[in-house]
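Hey team,

Filing this mostly as a record. A colleague (T.K.) asked me to run one chain through the structure pipeline before their review meeting, and I want the input and output archived in the tracker in case anyone asks later how it was produced. No errors, nothing strange. Just documentation.

Input sequence:
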Amino acid sequence: SAVAVPAEGTILSAADAAGAAARAAGPDAGPLPVVTAAAAAARASARASREELDVLRTAGVLDAGALGLVLVLDALVVAAAGASAGAEAGAAAGAAGARGPAAGDPGAGGVSVVRGSMDAVTLDQLLDAGALPSAPDPADAVSSVTDGEAEPHGAGSGALELMFVLTGPAGEQADTVAAGLRGALAEVGDSVVVVGGDAGTGTAVWQAHVHTDHLDRALVIAADAARAGTLAQVHVRHLAAAGQHEWGVVAATSAPGLAGELAHAGAVVLLTGGVGATVEPLVADDVERAAASTGARRVLLLGAPEVTAGGGAHLDVDELITVPSATDVHAVVALAALGTLLPVGLPDLGGDPVDAHAVVGEALAGLTVHATSAAAAVDLLERAAGPETTVVTALLDAGVPADLPDRLAAVLAGRVPDAELVVLATGHPGDGVQLGVEIAAPEPEADA
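Output structure:
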């Protein structure tokens, strides 16, 4: 019931198969035979997922959620094997066999280690297909399932992924929150999942997920549901940016209008406010979770330098680099500097690998940000724009006059005809304006 539109060929199918196999093992079977049967059935279901879901067949891949469940269940087999061996022979690694160290083995580091599980699934896929499938076009790579049928993103099915945690009071009304959220989110997107309920502590907690092309409407739904509670971990990601690569970006902002823009530019966005409901302050775990979801080895953090203090002990990335970015303009300029290098991962462009930190640092070194009102913005730009200006970024709150972008463009055309004007809406109420003025970096002096 947590999934609004269940579909075959997903983790649901693998879980169903695992449950049936576990029950079929019989009431007298011990833990190891039960979990072994469940893992084998989930694995078979994952292998079959490509034939059950058209979008997987088209992309030539297996279902990621089903494969994730295979990993979990294979780890459970390793743990159960270790426990069984320990009980029967006092040797924690004995029954684990070729799968890797058992749970009790010091080499496991306290975590069940599964060696080769995913490789074997991938090998099965390649043997079945006869060849390595070619990479899909980025525009077609991300799809969603609606009523059991796949639709490519960009065709209205949902290019952005929104996730959030909702906390509210427990009680009779809490029972209807999940159903209400599920129905409302299904009207603005797909792949809707809402789980949670009474936490037994006087509060109720739900986690929600949706793929949408209407982020503004989805955020209104989240805020409406949080009228009597709070939101946390409000996480926005462009689905086409998913995948492993060298560099990623996490951007924190309180401007809901910018969340989609930053996500489309390749960042994982943490929304810290501006949605008409109380959003809990970011903590280190929020940032680390967002960093891991970039799929990158090294991650730049924009807009939330304070949350990493003392954190990072359990990062799933090699390096998290905080970039000083006092305003949303800094985040916009940083992502613009990376340009087409995100989200494909800043590849080696024929020379040394690209250093995203250096690219962003150079761009921000030439940036000056001015905060003003709509009434004063034109005069301020007249004074701030000069011969060396290359780009002006204007972030406009919702209450600015409709003709302000044209007036700013006219000023820039008169002062610096070759400069570019970028205008973005923040979604904030009021008539505030942030102007970011960039100048070209000086050319390095030639050696004598």
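Quick notes for T.K.: Residues 64-89 form the longest helix (26 residues). Residues 90-156, 343-350 have pLDDT under 50 and may be disordered.
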